[in-house]
Design brief:
Blueprint (H helix, E strand, L loop, with lengths): L1 H4 L20 H16 L3 E6 L5 H11 L5 E7 L5 H11 L9 H17 L3 E7 L6 H11 L2 E2 L2 E2 L2 E6 L2 H6 L5 H4 L2 E7 L4 H14 L7 E2 L1 H11 L3 H18 L3 E2 L1 H15 L38 H47 L1
Parallel strand pairs: 1-6, 1-7, 2-3, 3-6, 8-9
Antiparallel strand pairs: 4-5
Length: 356
């Protein structure tokens, strides 16, 4: 929808990692340097860690575009609590081995045979394990054992481990001392700083044919960085919603106030409404009769309204107002969809007329 409004050829802020949108932040450039160094060494482990959404998968996708696949065979695994033996079967599958029903010793022998075959064909083998923080200690130890496989003194397998920051703490486990000794490079991917957000937005827009519309003013960029903490996926999440808001409201130059309005909607969408209600204050203790009427004045009767009734009425009023706003926004979205569908229906006939 906003693609059409802004004349873009695609979605610039999609959440799915896409190497076509690769952007060289300082931290990603450093990570690529470490990966390149690791490939030149051809052995050991390279460890890349970072928060969810910071760009680890995009980094690997970009790396894959620089590798000569005729000279390197890549096996990529995404792990979720995979036990050691299952991990070996997954590595075997990545090498084209059918290991169903095979014993562990047979799987390891088949993996070694396949790695030797790759080496004789002039190919190196790279194993990339994503979400490595979910691997049990025993599975990491199996990876270390696989890294020991050699032919003529040269390693047959190199391993890249990608994980969230807690993976570094996992590596400090005394049981992984031998694996740590085989780590030749380690890098922590950091979020973007404030100065990188605007070039990042412009880069992604330019990939899909941006011609200067929309624009983000300085305070809008600052608001995006503040909400996202510089994490690319969160930047994409917010920027995509901002563009949708702009298409509905016909905005071509976004201000900080525009971004703040979208942030309020996002925060509202993600708010958890099932919080336990605040405990009501205990009722006041009944007055005790005094022998001296002068010292026991008549107290006003408590209000008949339940405690918090005014707050409840105010909340209901706010919800009703929000429903009206959402209804108006929905009508605008439906109008844009109808316009878009009618335009799409008209295009084939126009093209047929041109061809004739």
């Amino acid at each position: 929808m906003y693609d059409d409004h802004y004349g873009l050829s695609g979605r610039p802020f999609q959440l799915t990692p896409d190497p076509a949108f690769w952007f060289d932040t300082a931290t990603h450039k450093k990570a690529m340097a470490y990966l390149g160094y690791g490939l030149s060494q051809g052995e050991g482990f390279i460890v890349i860690t970072g928060q969810p959404g910071v760009g680890k998968t995009t980094l690997i996708g970009h790396l894959m575009g620089t590798i000569d696949r005729e000279r390197m065979h890549v096996v990529k695994l995404v792990t979720t609590q995979i036990e050691a033996e299952d991990l070996l079967h997954m590595v075997a599958g990545g090498l084209g081995i059918d290991s169903a029903g095979a014993a562990k010793s047979q799987v390891i022998a088949a993996i070694e045979k396949a790695l030797h075959a790759m080496a004789r064909a002039g190919k190196r083998t790279l194993l990339i394990v994503d979400e490595a923080q979910a691997l049990p200690i025993a599975s990491l130890e199996e990876l270390r054992m696989l890294s020991n496989l050699q032919a003529g003194g040269y390693p047959l397998l190199q391993i890249f481990l990608l994980g969230q920051p807690e993976f570094r703490a996992r590596l400090s486990d005394p049981r992984l001392e031998q694996l740590r000794q085989r780590v030749i490079a380690m890098h922590q991917l950091d979020p973007m700083d404030g100065e990188e957000v605007e070039p990042y937005l412009i880069h992604r827009l330019s990939v899909v044919g941006w011609r200067g519309k929309p624009r983000f003013k300085n305070d809008a960029v600052a608001a995006i960085h503040r909400w996202s903490d510089g994490i690319p996926r969160k930047v994409n999440q917010l920027a995509g919603r901002v563009l949708l808001f702009g298409a509905i409201e016909q905005i071509d130059s976004f201000t900080g106030a525009d971004v703040d309005a979208v942030i309020a909607d996002l925060d509202s969408d993600m708010a958890f409404d099932g919080r336990p209600a605040t405990a009501a204050a205990p009722p006041p203790a009944p007055a005790t009769a005094s022998a001296d009427p002068a010292r026991d004045p008549v107290r006003p009767a408590p209000s008949a309204a339940a405690p918090g009734a005014d707050d409840l009425v105010a909340r209901i009023a706010r919800l009703e107002g929000r429903l009206e706003e959402q209804d108006a926004a929905l009508r605008r979205v439906l109008t844009l969809m109808v316009d878009f569908i009618e335009a799409e229906d008209a295009r084939p006939s126009a093209r047929r007329g041109t061809a004739a």
